[in-house]
Design brief:
eight-stranded mixed sheet, Rossmann fold, 18% strand, 268 residues, alpha/beta, single chain
Length: 268
Amino acid sequence: MFYTSGGDRLFYTVTGSGQDLVLLHPTPVNHRFWLPVAEVLSERYRVILPDLRGHGQSEAGEGAITMEKLGADVERLMAEEGIGKALFGGCSIGGYTLYEIWRRMPERVQALVFSGSRPQADAEVNRAKRRETIEGVRLRGTGDFIEASLNSLIGPTARRRTPQKVGEAREMMQAMRAEAVIAVQQGLAARPDSVATAKTIRVPCCVIAGGEDGASPPADMRLLAETIRNGGYGAEYHEIPDAGHFAPWEQPEVTGSMLRRFFDSVAG
């Protein structure tokens, strides 16, 4: 299904029935990232799976793909589907978007799951690396970027045990145009620090870390859970030792069971 946000045509799909649950995927993949987990959750929940702008079947639009744009897209999607309040989960850029959703419309959030989405903004060394990535994509296309992403975002255990997943992830990544990759990297480099935002969260939260995740390491995700708790609200923390940045994709059975328990505890 398609809807329009900011003049751009964006894709989403829905599975299951029940309470509304929105899952936001990481870059540079698309909504299919969440399908194995959604199979577990859709037994009780109406799971909404958008392709973030620039990913999958969604248009990128003009300029950088910022967290503000992604948050506005989710708000527009909720209007399209008549959703007043929802449960949310996000991985990587999907989790960064959750911080923006909380800043934008906290009254419409029932619970939040953060996976591989540390609240700190990029350090200068990270921004420099993104500039290098942008230049490389401009000069050579997305091939090198995709192979580097597969090696850095999928943990070594998953690459060894389930090599077919690498092929599936590569297929998703290849659907992303070079212009969209550049726009996302620009948006990620500009994303705001969300540590202060995490302190204001007042809904149940679940924080998931991959033990093999170098982009959002367990120490940073543990700090996120502690920051939410220090703000005065509870937050679960779970670490999946043999998973990388794409933990829900690499370990869908473990993650699906974890999220089902969490969301059931919130939904009652």
